[in-house]
Design brief:
Strands 1, 2, 3, 4, 5, 6, 7, 8 and 9 form a nine-stranded mixed beta sheet that branches. This protein has a six-stranded mixed beta sheet with strand order 14-13-10-11-12-15, sandwiched between helices. The chain contains 14 helices and 15 strands. The chain is elongated. 40% of the residues lie in helices and 21% in strands. Strand 2 and strand 3 (48-53) form a beta hairpin. By secondary structure, it is an alpha/beta fold. The structure holds adenosine-5'-triphosphate (ATP) and magnesium ion (MG). Adenosine-5'-triphosphate binds next to helix 5, strand 11 and helix 12. Magnesium ion binds next to loops.
Length: 394
């Protein structure tokens, strides 16, 4: 019955002069998200977007609920600005919604009409419409009862410039800002639980993500890379496409293993990762790095370690997980669909080379001294030369 969807967006409505640009971005992202399920039309109706698609509503809603920037989605009937048509449409959406709610045994189906009129030329005010449509529904749907406080069904009526929209359901959107509205960043993605969540959180704030994975074949096998690709595919489901840079990290790992004191290996390895990431970011026009670090989880994530690691780059490093507990991160990973992949037991390059007693409070001068035997510049160039960019679609 539905082929039209009313899209509400919150925050981007507040952005003043940027608003048209944000709306355009959101419209593009919606079109891209729906491409997989079929052709769609997206139209701006003051303060809202209207999507038309003939595809299966369940699939359309599933796709739309992953587009950042959307606050709520309602399947709607688009009607002429005509009272009779509005009343008949309201009855239709009520009947449809009634099939999906269960009043407690012996209780009537309760409802409420919520009319909103942004087109002031329409001759009825919102309260008048509430009365008119409510009265019509009571007369035509046996056993119905009004409950303005806690109704089972809310029938929405929106009077806009050219059309009226009626609906009886709202699906929550993903919130946030449209991906791309805030520029681009490079996500350092491992196969773990944290970094995919960090990438998702950056995307939620409108940041377009490209990903880099440091790959130490054959110390880590093809399966661990496949897992990273799968994680990127899940993230791409929120934005249509993710570019993944697979960085050849084996030589660097070997050199660190050979020349650097054991307790500082993780620190040095991270410094090399950051240096490489900063260069890829510059090449790709990314303005920040994003990592899955949080404070205090492991040796390399003390503030002292972060200071020493962060020193080798001058690009901002975003760490969206700093305020989260492990349990919260796990829950988020489950919600966004990355958790089951992340816990697959394939080795990450880091777990493989983990020293027994990594330094938890390394000092910058120690790290610099420990790096002296490494031909840093050559190693970086060598790794970048073998870096491959893949395009992963959601
Ligand atoms: P995660 O769960 O994301 O693996 P973690 O808690 O295991 O994180 P670390 O191993 O200390 O923490 O890694 C910290 C961050 O460094 C990761 O979140 C990720 O952003 C980055 N990182 C670690 N290993 C790699 C890798 N092989 N390729 C790309 N980035 C990596
Ligand atoms: Mg990890």
């Amino acid at each position: 019955m539905y082929n039209t969807y009313l899209i509400r967006y919150g925050e981007i409505g507040l952005k003043g002069k940027n608003r048209p640009q944000f709306e355009r971005r959101l419209m593009d992202n919606i079109k891209r998200a729906l491409k997989k399920v079929g052709p769609a039309r997206v139209e701006r109706v003051y303060g809202r977007l209207v999507v038309e698609s003939e595809a299966d509503p369940a699939r359309v809603l599933e796709r739309l609920s992953r587009v950042f920037g959307i606050v709520g989605i309602s399947p709607v009937l688009r009607l002429p600005l005509d009272e009779e048509a509005i009343c008949a449409g309201a009855l239709e959406v009520l009947r449809d919604a009634a099939g999906r709610v269960q009043p407690p045994a012996g209780s009537p189906l309760t409802f409420k009409v919520e009319a909103r009129r942004s087109n002031k030329a329409f001759p009825r005010t919102s309260p008048e419409l509430n009365g008119l449509v409510g009265g019509y529904l009571l007369k035509n749907y046996p056993g119905l009862k009004v409950d303005v406080h806690n109704p089972l069904v809310r029938v929405g009526v929106e009077i806009r410039e050219k059309n009226a929209f009626v609906y009886a359901a709202e699906v929550p959107g993903a919130g946030g800002l449209p991906v791309g509205a805030a520029g681009k960043a490079l996500l350092l993605i491992s196969g773990g639980i944290d970094s995919p969540v960090a990438g998702w959180m950056a995307m939620k704030r409108g940041i377009e993500i490209e990903a880099a994975h440091f790959y130490s074949f054959p110390f880590t096998g093809e399966k661990s890379l496949e897992k990273v690709r799968d994680l990127c595919r899940v993230l791409a489901g929120y934005t249509a496409r993710i570019r993944l840079h697979v960085v050849h990290f084996t030589e660097i790992q070997k050199e660190i293993q050979k020349h650097c004191p054991e307790e500082l290996r993780v620190t040095i390895m991270r410094r090399m990762m950051f240096r490489l990431a900063a260069r890829i970011a510059r090449q790709r026009g990314a303005l920040a790095l994003v990592t899955g670090e949080s404070v205090g989880q492991v040796a390399s994530q003390t503030l002292e370690s972060m200071l020493v690691i962060n020193r080798v780059v001058d690009i901002p490093v975003l760490r969206p997980l700093v305020g989260m507990d492990k349990l919260e991160i796990i829950q988020r990973a489950q919600n966004i669909g990355t958790y089951d992949l992340s816990i697959l037991p394939y080795e990450d390059c880091c777990t493989l080379f983990l020293p027994k007693h990594p330094a938890t409070r390394p000092r910058p001068d120690q790290a610099e001294r420990a790096e002296e035997p490494l031909a840093v510049e050559e190693l970086l160039n060598g790794a970048l030369e073998w870096t491959v960019m893949e395009e992963i679609r959601g």
